[in-house]
Design a protein that fits this description.
With 454 residues, the chain is an alpha/beta fold. It has two domains: 2-54 and 385-394 and 421-441, Urease, subunit C, domain 1 (Roll); 57-372, Metal-dependent hydrolases (TIM Barrel, Alpha-Beta Barrel), CATH 3.20.20.140. 31% of the residues lie in helices and 24% in strands. Strands 1, 2, 3, 4, 5, 14, 15, 16 and 17 form a nine-stranded mixed β-sheet that branches. The protein has an eight-stranded parallel β-sheet with strand order 6-7-8-9-10-11-12-13. Strand 2 (17-27) and strand 3 form a beta hairpin. The radius of gyration is 21 Å and the shape is globular. The two termini are 34 Å apart.
Length: 454
């Protein structure tokens, strides 16, 4: 038997453990064998992992690819090119585009654009507002991965439903069997505090962080957990930034609520001091928190309150980020920065520091996100019969991000500029095709395809 591709001579890591001098065989885009290198079949092409670590393809379920409508910031092609270069084999786009993804025809437009130009596989969330409760079932039938409500102000100014409408949305979404996620900041608290800060002339980058207090995040999580407890809906908390928020998630889990949560590499890596050091480049919402909140967030990741890792990859132009005047009036800047090419290096650096094992990293960054959003085991596993999505990393490579312009997004503004890492993706395989290898994106735009979900 000869297969299409064999990957040999690596350490295969899944949450179940590690296997040295191992690899896998791929035929027609599907994994047909996983085992010791000398037991794998012959292949038309062999890829030597050279002792590096082979893991299930990394799944990032929170990116802003900006298409349709905001392609000047990013698009499916550039975002997924960055994903391929970063070792990410599946991405999920957010719905705050132009038009917003709030009806089946808009979702179909987003899918069509992805099919035309994506380098890796993809899906999309749809937004729930006061205006589209009646479309929830139709959006499910159109193939949405899940639903999102923006509870607080965000890029795109998508207005939140009121609490009664949220409860109705949960009831409708429960019937689809899919999950509803939240940008979980209490908008009334944030809007009130922001106006106070502006009136008082507090306009430094650190003031932006203080204008979105932790209580806004914690209260939103507690409230949505209460609604989910009442309705039986499955819910998710995106980009949890604080230990206080994560502890609220844990309380919900303890009450038997089906609530999951993600955090982002920047919340685990930085403290709010980065806003003093790098200014508005590090401005994001919810904001990066103080050291105590970061420590408690780490504890939540370790004890299972935080399920998964995602980036909230959110490109903006240098002008929008005030790159030429990073400590200028923060209210003139915009929130968000890129993350697809730094997420693996950040997490592998934590592995190198002993904060996580490789097995734990794979669980949080591949297996668990795929499970949460109904893509597992087709994505997020190395099981025979599943999509041959594979990320190969060099866990010992020491490097520094000296020149963000070498990243693949249209506008690679990032607070990780100048940061040093241990570990990096060296090869990305999507459904059996090598899309990134040896420092180059080698896959073709349009190879990526929509992930089908029930």
């Amino acid at each position: 038997m000869t297969v299409d591709l064999v990957v040999r001579n690596g350490t295969v890591v899944t949450p179940a453990g590690a296997s040295i001098d191992a690899g896998l065989a791929i035929e027609d885009g599907t994994i047909v064998a996983v085992g010791q290198s000398d037991q794998l079949p012959e292949a038309a092409r062999t890829l030597d992992a050279a002792g590096n670590v082979i893991v299930p393809g990394i799944v990032d379920c929170h990116i802003h690819n900006r298409e349709p409508g905001l392609e000047y910031k990013e698009d499916w092609e550039s975002a997924t090119r960055a994903a391929a270069a970063g070792g990410v084999s599946t991405v999920v786009g957010m719905p705050n585009t132009d038009p917003v993804i709030d009806r089946p025809e808009h979702l179909e437009l987003k899918f069509d654009r992805g099919e035309a130009s994506a380098h890796v596989d993809f899906q999309s969330f749809v937004v729930v507002t006061s205006e589209n409760l009646e479309r929830i079932s139709a959006l499910d039938e159109a193939g949405a991965l899940g639903y999102k409500i923006f509870l607080g102000s965000t890029v795109g100014d998508v207005p939140p439903p009121n609490d009664g409408e949220i409860i109705e949305a949960m009831e409708r979404i429960r019937e689809t069997g899919k999950r509803l996620g939240f940008h979980e900041e209490n908008g009334e608290i944030v809007d009130y505090t922001t106006e106070q800060f502006k009136t008082d002339g507090k306009n430094r980058p650190i003031d932006f962080a203080r204008s979105r207090p932790v209580i806004a995040e914690r209260e939103a999580i507690e409230r949505m957990c209460t609604f989910a407890e009442e309705t039986g809906a499955k819910i998710h908390m995106y980009h949890v930034s604080s230990g206080s928020g994560a502890e609220a998630v844990a309380r919900g889990k303890d009450r038997g609520i089906d609530v999951t949560a993600e955090t982002c590499p920047h919340y685990l890596w930085f403290t709010e001091d980065v806003l003093r050091e790098k200014g508005n480049v590090a401005r994001i919402q919810p904001p990066i928190r103080n050291a105590d909140e970061r420590d408690r967030l780490w504890a939540a990741l370790e004890n299972g309150a935080i399920d998964s890792i995602a980036t909230d990859h959110a490109p903006h132009t240098a002008e929008e980020k005030l790159v030429d005047d990073p400590f200028g009036n923060t209210w003139d800047a915009i929130s968000g920065f890129v993350g697809l090419e730094t997420e693996i290096p950040v997490m592998l650096s934590f592995v190198a520091d002993g904060r996580l094992t490789l097995e734990e990293w794979v669980y949080h960054h591949s297996v668990r996100p795929a499970q949460i959003w109904g893509m597992y085991p087709q994505k997020g596993s190395l099981q025979v019969g599943t999509d041959a999505d594979v990320t190969i990393v060099d866990p010992d490579l020491e490097w520094t991000l000296e020149d963000p312009s070498e990243l693949h997004s249209k506008h690679p503004v990032t607070p990780f500029e100048g940061e040093s890492f241990t570990g990096k993706a060296v090869t990305t395989i999507v459904r059996g095709e090598v899309v990134y290898d040896d420092g180059e994106v080698v896959g073709e735009a349009g190879f990526g395809t929509r992930v089908d979900v029930d």
